[in-house]
Amino acid sequence: MVGFTEPTRKSLALARLGRRVAEWAEKFFIWGQWMWGLLFLALGARFALIALERYGQQSPESIAGAEKKSAVPSSVHSTLRQIAKSLPKPSEDLKPTAKGGDVITATLSANLQPSRSEVLVDGESLGNTPFAGDFSCRLGDPVKIEIIAPSGATKQFTRPCSKGMITLRDGSE
Questions:
Q1: Mean pLDDT, range 36-42, rounded to an integer
Q2: What is the pLDDT, as a whole number, of residue 81?
Q3: Residue 173 pLDDT
Q4: pLDDT in tens, 85-101
């Protein structure tokens, strides 16, 4: 027999390695197909949610006009309308509810010298300068702020309680 030899150990090892690489590549591609499928499913769900939120923000008149012009069956519109009614309206969640005298959380920023001075708000110690933090107060009431230096020198400020930031810096009175 000329030209035909028995397989060597080296050629058998290469054949086994090629088979393992092929198995690994097949698993990798199957995993990749699943990941692409999940990605498209997630994107589709996100776009559906955005569409439902925007549909919920439309006025009833514009929805009725869309139903007349649309080729989508009215049963789909009624189902979407029911879903939209169950969603909270963003404007209701963001409206300020605090009225004069209500307890709110205000923010204080005190950047005064010397550093490490104690910060007191209405007699309560909140920390040391430089300070940025929250405290509670009644809307519109005066807030007494004291800055006590390590040497004992005291600076006093009075500001009305309000939403937003109360800022104290050197030179502000």
A1: 85
A2: 74
A3: 54
A4: 776 665 544 445 555 67
Relative orientation angle of helices 9-56 and 74-86, to the nearest 10 degrees: 80
User: Which residues touch 26 (CB under 8 Å, ≥6 apart)?
Assistant: none
Give 70's contacts (C-beta < 8 A, 6+ positions apart): 77
- The dihedral region occupied by 59, where left means phi > 0, alpha psi between -120 and 50, and beta the remainder, is beta
Contact 119, 125 (CB under 8 A): yes
Sequence-ordered list of residues with C-beta below 8 angstroms from that of 104, at least 6 positions apart, any chain? 98, 136, 137, 138, 139, 161, 163
Pairwise CA distance, residues 131 & 56, whole Å:
43
Sheet holding 118-121, edge to edge: 124-128, 118-121, 142-148, 154-160
Instruction: Provide mean pLDDT across the span 12-37.
Output: 79
Q: Report the mean per-residue pLDDT for the chain.
A: 76
Q: pLDDT tens digits for 140-169?
A: 899 999 999 999 889 999 999 888 888 888
The 3 state secondary structure assigned to 113-153 is: CCCCCEEEECCEEEEECCEEEEEEEECCCEEEEEEECCCCC
What are the two backbone dihedrals, phi and then psi, of residue 62, each rounded to the nearest 5 degrees?
-70, -30
Alpha-carbon span 128 to 57, nearest angstrom = 46
